[in-house]
């Protein structure tokens, strides 16, 4: 995960640079949204192709994995499995976020130094740099709300990816591709390889493309309805902020906005991941009609685990099995046979 996250961070340097160039040219709203969305989508697809990681980006199978845990377990076993699944996501996403942030920050600084050497000016102009770092203040801007909104978009993209994958499986799209008459022209083996590729990638690719355009068009959609909506993704906005800070050099470390924006980036990570995972969990619990009582018991169990063994949410260690099986009244029993 660390290696994939560092690679993803370096790739995001170019995504952030292109995004800054797009918004700096003041295109028409639809054109700007389309270009920004395409930039995001292409970047996410390249991450997918090269096996790199982007922090908080929810895979299409997250909801399905949660639903499978809920289906196979009851009572205390269900709570233990869901909490362990949440801890696994937490620690891997923390590693992904740290790797992304370190790589994108370093990459943006190096990119700006090279740009300065070649063109004798920083990549980001002063007015745009000020707008970027002031927009990340956690209390004096809408960073928290926008980060939570981005968490919704991350979940929604994962849902779209899962739906596309289910559609392909239900309608036997890969099998149809393998049996297409075109195989008489290019060969049955080649058509089978294409079908296998579609089967493996339709979920991740549709997630990446939908997320790119959701991030690109949400601000413009908000503007259309008169709402000040924006997106705040921890890695993408860290890259844009690093470009803005790089123009000040080492003197940036003496500026209050640098540390204020760092707090904003931490808030982004928590809300991006927390909101997207909470929505996936809620949908999975609703899918199997888990009642309010069991949901409350699950939350209590998860909080007890976070307090008694917080390191399992940060590092890949095996938590001590200190929690007993849930009381008799909390265990959800299967419905009696008709």
Walk me through what this model shows.
With 338 residues, the protein is mainly alpha-helical. The chain has one domain (2-55, 62-311): Glycerol uptake facilitator protein. Helix content is 73%, strand content 0%. The chain is built from twelve helices and no strands. The radius of gyration is 22 Å and the shape is globular. The model is unreliable at 319-338 (pLDDT under 50).
How do the strands and helices of this protein lay out in sequence?
Blueprint: H1 2-24, H2 29-49, H3 62-72, H4 75-119, H5 126-134, H6 143-170, H7 173-178, H8 183-186, H9 188-224, H10 234-246, H11 256-287, H12 292-308
What's the overall geometry?
Answer: globular
Share of residues in strands? under 5%
Low-confidence stretches: 319-338
Helical segment count: 12
Distance between the termini: 48 Å
Q: Give the helix level as a range of percent.
A: over 70%
Integer tally of domains: 1
Q: What class do helices, strands and sheet pairing give?
A: mainly alpha
Whole-angstrom Rg = 22 Å
Characterize the main sheet.
Answer: none
Mean pLDDT: 87
| CATH structural fold name | Glycerol uptake facilitator protein
